[in-house]
Amino acid sequence: MKKIFLIPILLFSATFVCAQESKDIKLKAPQKNKGAKIMQALSERKSTRTFDAKELDIQTISNLLWAANGINRPDGKRTAPSAMNRQEVDVYVCLKSGAYFFNPQENELKFISDADCLLRDAPLTLYLVARAQEGNTWAYIDTGIVSQNISLFASGFGLATVPQGSMPKEKIIKDLKLTDSQLLILNHPVGYPAKENKEKNK
Ligand SMILES: Cc1cc2nc3c(=O)[nH]c(=O)nc-3n(C[C@H](O)[C@H](O)[C@H](O)COP(=O)(O)O)c2cc1C
User: In the list 6, 105, 133, 153, which could disulfide-bond 67, CB 3.0-4.6 Å?
Assistant: First the structure.
């Protein structure tokens, strides 16, 4: 008799686990031979605040996250340097489907919530969060370096972005389920430039 009661519980648990797992997004290997050369990326870097509605494909998102703060060496070090190799900067990603944590070791996006945390109508917004306490200068410096990686990636791939300190912090902290030991420092909406920008910039 006990078994009969156990079966629906087990089925429910299995469905719940599968549903949770299916919300994570497996990223693709970064394409390290793509994009503009560094001098061209630097000469085209700029802040752009209006975006086209076109979504970024999964390969572009994978490349972007690797460039931002992915692992580029077998010893686990990153594309962005960090003071005393603390590697305290995490990248959170907001897509139409919700909020995710970029796990560079697994090269995947771990689902956090289905919050709408997109900014400026961009199809994707990155949030740079440091595992540090307020006033830790190194955390802000390290975050700035990740931010510049994102800006250079964007210019090298013809994408638009702007680093922003302004944001609805209380809402985003809730959306990303951040704790007191984390600092929400910057965000980067990323997407294709709005059509009128392209024309203006010609
Ligand atoms: C740390 C930092 C914070 C910024 N915060 C904002 C912001 O909250 N909102 C905004 O529109 N731009 C923000 N910017 C972008 C600057 O306004 C922009 O970089 C500056 O005007 C120079 O333009 P450029 O990036 O095109 O060279 C920020 C830039 C930095 C480096």
Answer: 153
Cα of 55 vs centre of ligand 1, distance in Å, is 23
What's the pLDDT at 44?
Answer: 98
Q: Residue 4 and residue 15: Cα distance in Å, rounded?
A: 18
What does the chain come to in residues? 202
The confidence score (pLDDT) of residue 21 equals: 53
Q: Would you say 111 and 98 are in contact if contact means Cβ atoms under 8 Å apart?
A: yes
Atom of ligand 1 nearest to the CA of 48: 26
- Over the range 188-198, which residues count as b (16 or more CB within 10 Å of their CB) and which as e? bbbbbbbeebe
Question: For residues 132 and 183, is the Cβ–Cβ distance under 8 A?
Answer: yes
Give the pLDDT confidence of 77-109 residue by residue, as tens digits. Answer: 999 999 999 999 999 999 999 999 999 999 999
CATH class of 25-201: alpha beta
Domain boundaries, the chain: 25-201
Pocket of ligand 1 (CB under 6 A): 46-47, 49, 162-166
**Ligand 1 centroid distance, CA of 172 (Å):** 19
Q: Are 91 and 65 in contact (CB under 8 A)?
A: yes
Give me ligand 1 centre to Cα 162, in Å.
6
